[in-house]
Amino acid sequence: MVKVISLSNAAYQTLKRLKRGNESFSDVVLNLVNKEKKDSLLEFAGIWKDKPEMDNIFEGILHERHNSRDRKINLKW
Q1: Residue 36 and residue 10: Cα distance in Å, rounded?
Q2: Quick one: DSSP state of residue 70?
Q3: What are the structural domain ranges in the chain?
Q4: Distance (Å, rounded) from C-alpha 19 to C-alpha 13?
């Protein structure tokens, strides 16, 4: 099913610049939408699971947190 949409001249020119070869405007729009989905932070969920080097990094972070101390700050208004 084909739908007609209206674009500003700037939007049209931007899509036209993104178009490659015989690619349709529909393909350009779909590629942009799919790229946006791929850039989701959820894509990285669980990426460090079962990585021994990350265990060492997290242990170091916890060690530094444990050894840090609170500082008193005196704010005068």
Answers
A1: 20
A2: -
A3: 9-67
A4: 10
Structure tokens at 57: 């990094």
pLDDT tens, residue by residue, 8-29: 999 999 999 999 999 999 999 9
Helix (H) or strand (E) holding 75: none
Distance CA 17, CA 11 (A): 10
Instruction: Please provide the distance, in angstroms rounded to a whole number, between the alpha carbons at the two ends of the chain.
Output: 66
pTM for the structure as a whole: 0.45
How many secondary structure helices (H) and strands (E) does the chain include? 3, 0
**Residue 42 gets which letter from DSSP?**
G
